[in-house]
Design a protein that fits this description.
Pfam families: Glyco_trans_1_4, Glyco_trans_4_4. This protein is an alpha/beta fold. It contains 18 helices and 14 strands. The mean pLDDT is 93.
Length: 411
Amino acid sequence: MRILHVLDHGLPLQSGYTFRTRAILKAQEARGWQVAAVTGPRHGLAPDAVESVDGLTFYRTQATRKGGVLGEVGGLAAFARRIDAAVDAFRPDMLHAHSPVLDAIAALRVARARGLPLVYEIRAFWEDAAVGNGTGTEGSAKYRVTRAMESWAVQRADAVAVICEGLRGDLIARGVAADKIVVSPNGVDLTLFGEPVARDPALAASLGLEDAETIGFIGSFYDYEGLDDLIAAMPALVTARPKARLLLVGGGPMEVALRAQAAASPAADAIRFVGRVPHTEVERYYALVDVLAYPRKRMRLTDLVTPLKPLEAMAQGKLVAASDVGGHRELIRDGDTGTLFAPDDPAAIAMALAGLLADRSGWDARRARGRAFVEAERNWSSNIRRYDPVYQRLTSAALMDTACQHSPASL
């Protein structure tokens, strides 16, 4: 089986998107399949037209220099041409496009021209992601157009993969046949992220966390992550638990505003910003944290989409506490593998975290259950099997179509 993946961006860039992509491609290689990828113009400038990163082959599309609608149209055309050239070079059995929807549209052009099956994988609806990132408005003209494009692409793809039940349910409500959709959930590559490292006393001391009860967030600082609510919860939490400290590792669009909010907080001395760290260093910071907190705000994006970070935390044997939104409920069983609290409510966050810190009697068992959940249900070495029946069905159908086209007409 030869699979050409069509991506918005890829390695060596680091994001949740590229980490999931790497996990998929590496797991497929481990199953004996041959894989390569094409990245779109939004990947940015690349030193070579074809690059090998971490043992994976990436065909690059030249970044467009124009903005606006003309830039998008030009970029889409260039992307389709690059996918077509990659098909010539790699000779895949199928195309596997990953959201956003422009990737699927570019891939669809090539798939139809080349007689290749197309799987379209949706990690989030582009229009909802724009609302969550603060670059779009729900119900706007752009939102409606993007949603229509998504529905158009889904109807024309040969199969659709989604990362969670929330997205699957939304597509079914749009009229997409349930048997056309496979759920391929977020997972953790336990060969890379499965063995917790020892706590580094020097690192803890440099951050003033030697004797702290540490709440942590490690990820991107987007508005929908609700980090402003977590910072707002800190005065009440420190009142209840004087040793409580908040460790924020990462960066993003909200970083400046969050730093200003923390500086003005009565609990400013209890809040630490680390900034972005290389992915190879992330485990050192997980090792300093007692409870990982994920206070996502309630909106369509967070209700429909499951995040990756809580799974990484559970793989590291950490306690997780998260807002009670749909995406978290698919990953966390309240009181069993983690704690859920009311979203958009700093008082509820403070109460939930204080309760966890006050009673450690069940910590070891809860952490073990969280780790077991990741191993059994969110491990990429087993997750990857969900693609098998889809790929086999589509490649078999493509072979039959080819055979019919070349067979003599019956009399």
